[in-house]
Amino acid sequence: MGKEGKNMNEGSSINYRLRKKKRRNKRRKLKLLAFLMILFSFLFVFKDEVAHRFLFYRAEAAGAYTDRGILLVNDSHVLDKKYKPASLREANIPFASDISTEEKKLTEVAAEAVEEMFATAQKEGIILIGSSGYRSYKSQKEIYLRDLGAKGEEYVSSYVAVPGSSEHQTGLAMDITNEANWITGESTEARWLRDNCHLFGFILRYPEGKEHITGKAYEPWHFRYVGKEAAEEIYTQGLTLEEYMGVY
Asked: How many angstroms separate the CA atoms of 237 and 3, rounded?
């Protein structure tokens, strides 16, 4: 074979390898594109579940504690300052006139439950008013510093959570009052809530006589969503959330 023929064959071989490499690269790009399309479709369809799971992992990394799908937040188990629950929305219930738009929100599951609870109470002649739901870390910090300056350290240590340790940041807690905006443990509304909240998945979060466990004073207005099964067990056994989860 002459030199010219040999060069032509080598050139053809090189061109063939180049075309083959281009086809292989093209197939790889198409496979990557298909994978990304499937991944983005999955994330779009399950965005709330993915975000919810991701945020709970962030909470655990910051020191909060989860077990059986329940999030425990207190002075010893705190949330990251950037933590924000997924699926927040404004609950369709009556609210006190002096609360912020932010505080009217709960997570979707808690909002549905509180709406059902308020509607049932109204049918039984009990008028409930929402006074504070979700609060961001920033909002809780503002409240803490305000009350610390106005009411002192003894008061805030009993009634006001340090930023990051507030259940309100979870979007699962709602402070509830009455039309007079003055609810006590023996008021009609407080008694009804204490006896019925578990039917809707809520618990009285800081019960009387359990201050040494919860670290907070008795709050007949503060209710936390944990789901109906857990709420029923907590209610019937007279437990706090810390006792139920075995962390105290």
From this structure: 96
